[in-house]
Amino acid sequence: MSGAVAFPRLLAVSVLTCLVFPNAAFADGGHDRTQVGHNITVGPDEEITDATCFGCSVRVRGRVAGDVTTFGGSISVEDHGQVAGDATTFGGSIRLDKEVRVGGDVTVFGGRIRRDPAATVGGDVTNMGGPGWMILILAVPFVFLALFVVLIVWIVRLILRPARPATA
Q1: Which tens digit of pLDDT belongs to each residue from 80-115?
Q2: CA-closest candidate to residue 69, choices 97, 92, 99, 46
Q3: Which residue from 43, 75, 99, 163 has the least number of CB within 10 angstroms?
Q4: 3-state secondary structure (DSSP) of residue 77
């Protein structure tokens, strides 16, 4: 996907997320990390519970006891990093370097998975790569909304249509 197309989508997701989900709503005593537009890095000697990133990427070199999730960003697990739960990205890629471990599933929507053969994944690996999946995921609800609006307009016109006199 070209940068010119990705930037407006990324900007829209980031602004919507800031308005709907304030960062404080995700906080869990400092053990979770949630960011909007700022990358998250888990250092080699750090351990956190979960990492969630909107419009940014997550780099894991330490340990994540739960899940790592990005929307419009990538996940990179490197230098013996560990994710005990799932690694999921929407509109980004996942890179698993040599001798890293993901205990749960690895799932990518609209991106790629780069996995070293020495990386360990405890669950399923699912890749719905390419921009077609993102378009499908985002467009289908709008199609149903448009069909609903068309139905409402058709019903209103049917109700407001003047009665025609019967011809004999």
Answers
A1: 999 999 999 988 899 999 999 999 999 998 888 999
A2: 92
A3: 163
A4: strand
